[in-house]
Design goal:
Blueprint (H helix, E strand, L loop, with lengths): L3 E7 L4 H17 L4 H4 L7 E8 L2 E11 L2 E9 L8 H15 L5 E7 L3 H5 L4 E9 L2 E9 L2
Parallel strand pairs: 4-5
Antiparallel strand pairs: 1-2, 2-3, 3-4, 5-7, 6-7
Length: 147
């Protein structure tokens, strides 16, 4: 899908971070039944929030934050009508480029829902550790080496 403009902001309180929260609420809370109190957490205040806009409509989002001296990609979400149109791929590529070029990090970690493992493998994320349940959904840790 062409014409997606990506915006980024650090922390919360802006229109962009609000747009990200609306997408997350739609995808994770409404569709996947994640409790809102689990969806919102303290990492939101210390994250880069990314939103993809198509003709000024927010259609995808993700966040990138540091924990234990590692960068974590999370809350990757695409509005239902735009799934299967390479929107998620463009979003992840945009964030990986930002992490590599702006943050100069050598790796990115993600807590992937098990049903999204093959999506992340397209970017060369690799699984590590055992599967676990988070917010009632099975997950696995993955990481991407950027060197």
């Amino acid at each position: 899908m062409e014409g997606i403009d990506f915006g980024k902001v650090f922390g919360i309180g802006s229109k962009l971070s609000y747009d990200a929260l609306l997408i997350r609420k739609s995808v994770f809370v409404n569709e996947q039944n994640v409790p809102i109190e689990e969806e919102l957490d303290d990492y939101d205040m210390e994250s880069y929030h990314f939103v993809g806009y198509l003709i000024s409509q927010p259609i995808c989002c993700a966040r990138l934050y540091m924990k234990d001296n590692k960068w974590y990609l999370g809350r990757v979400a695409v509005i239902k009508d735009y799934r299967g149109k390479n929107v998620g791929e463009k979003l992840v590529k945009h964030i990986v480029s930002f992490a590599k070029n702006e943050l100069e990090t050598s790796e990115i970690h993600i807590s992937s829902q098990v049903n999204a493992i093959y999506f992340y493998k397209k970017f060369n994320f690799v699984e590590y550790g055992d599967k676990y349940v988070d917010a009632g959904i099975e997950h696995i840790s993955m990481k991407l080496n950027l060197e």
